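To: structure desk
From: M.T.
Subject: fold request, one chain
Message: Could you run this one when you get a chance? Sequence is below, nothing fancy, just the single chain.
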Amino acid sequence: MSQPTTPTPGSSRPVTDDGVGSAWAGGGTLFAGFLLLVDGVLGVIKGVAGIATNDVYAAVNDYVFKFNVTAWGWIHLVLGVVLIFVGWGILKGATWARAVGIALVSLNLIANFMWLPYTPIWAIVTIAIDVFIIWALCTDRSEPAV
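Reply: Done. Structure tokens follow.
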């Protein structure tokens, strides 16, 4: 069993002598995978609700990022389905899932920022979840399973 060494400059956690990151970051990555699954399912639900009827969400009159609610529904539906697959990949330890997860969660964060006028509180909650997911996927330096 190796002892943790002092962190290298710019790192946020100690790295053990064998180069594997701490259990905290690994647990954060596992939690990020679950959050990606949940975020994807909620995106699918938001998308289906937006596609089904335009009366579910209140339309905002003068907003820069004004789209039809049905268009927002399709955006959330597609992002949600893809986030579910990426979350599953992270839970399985796929190498590609971290980088794809960071990119797609960044897109989801931007989409939810633009979605703020329709559901402001839920969009802010989703943005906070997305920021945590990005942090967790960026800070874990352990080797993913191949």
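Reply (cont.): The chain is about 65% helix and 0% strand. Let me know if you need anything else for the meeting.
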